[in-house]
Amino acid sequence: MTLIDTHCHLDVEAFDADRAEVLAAARAAGVRSIVVPGVDAAGWDQLLRLCASDAGLYPALGLHPVYLDRHQESDLLALEQAVASAKPVAIGEIGLDFHAKDADRDGQLALCRAQLAIARAVRLPVLLHVRKAHEEMLGLLAETPVIGGVAHAFNGSLQQAQRYIELGFCLGFGGMLTFERSSRLRRLAADLPLEALVLETDAPDLSVASHQYQRNSPAYLPEVLTALAAVRETSAARLAAQTTANARRCLRLSAD
To answer: Distances from the Cα of 22 to the Cαs of 48, 104, 122, 126, in angstroms?
Structure first.
């Protein structure tokens, strides 16, 4: 089976000691392609070098809402320039995170709006991080439509999921799906159209149940597939083929 990890931070320090081994293990597990999202301008060069070293690694560039204090106004111009020269597959990881009570909502909204405008101008999909802010995110997408992308680690309602799908988005499911206590998320994964689902790990974060409290890895993506097959009562082989096709369509990735 061929799988695509649509969201994995393989460039971060947590993988510095054994990145090659992690990537080899992922390939051995059937993970042929990995999308590596950027979170701040300081990390883009290293991310791009990593992706240039392996044809199965696809870069995305963005300014993450949680790291608002790291970003400078000039980073938006830098993003435009980097996108023009590096040709990433997506703008991301971008979005809104209103989980913290003291979140700078206005700052996040302005940053996300600006990055959606860049994605729209260059006709690239986006990788969305949305936490406690789906209505606000859907509002921004209505203001500045893009060609779609992935709502990463989706945890909204069925109705919100349907609105993202209507806007051309796929919905990412990862390690949380492997926990039996994630009953609402598992019901959502069972009820959504199969054509809208993609797999992800968000490694090194949000690990699968078998490696709870440990570093996550793209090699664990088959465990997400197994959990999805269980909740949908569908064969893993069928889901592998469909989610891989979905990822290629949503992010316009070339076939291996």
So the answer is: 18, 36, 33, 26
Which residue pairs from 51-58 have beta carbons closer than 8 angstroms and sit at least 24 positions apart in sequence? 54/23, 56/27, 56/32, 56/256, 57/10, 57/33, 58/33, 58/34, 58/88, 58/89, 58/251, 58/253
CA atoms in the 13 A half-sphere facing the CB of 160? 18
Tokens of 38: 């950027």
Cβ(135)–Cβ(105) below 8 Å: no
Task: Show the beta-strand stretches assigned E in the chain.
Answer: 3-5, 31-37, 57-61, 90-97, 126-131, 149-152, 169-173, 197-199
- Quick: pLDDT tens for 84-114: 999 999 999 999 999 999 999 999 999 999 9
Q: What are phi and psi of 36, to 5 degrees?
A: -110, 105
What's domain 3-251's superfamily in CATH? Metal-dependent hydrolases (3.20.20.140)
pTM over 0.70? The answer is yes
- Residues found in the chain: 256
Contact at 8 Å (CB) between 90 and 149?
yes
Predicted confidence (pLDDT) at residue 203 exceeds the cutoff of 80: yes
Torsion angle defined by CA atoms of residues 202, 89, 85 and 204, in that order, rounded to the nearest 10 degrees? 10
d(CA 221, CA 91): 23
**Which of 63, 164, 42, 156 has its CA nearest to residue 110?**
63
**Any idea where the domains of the chain sit in the sequence?**
3-251
Show the tokens assigned to 42: 């300081």
- What 3-state class would DSSP assign to 179? coil
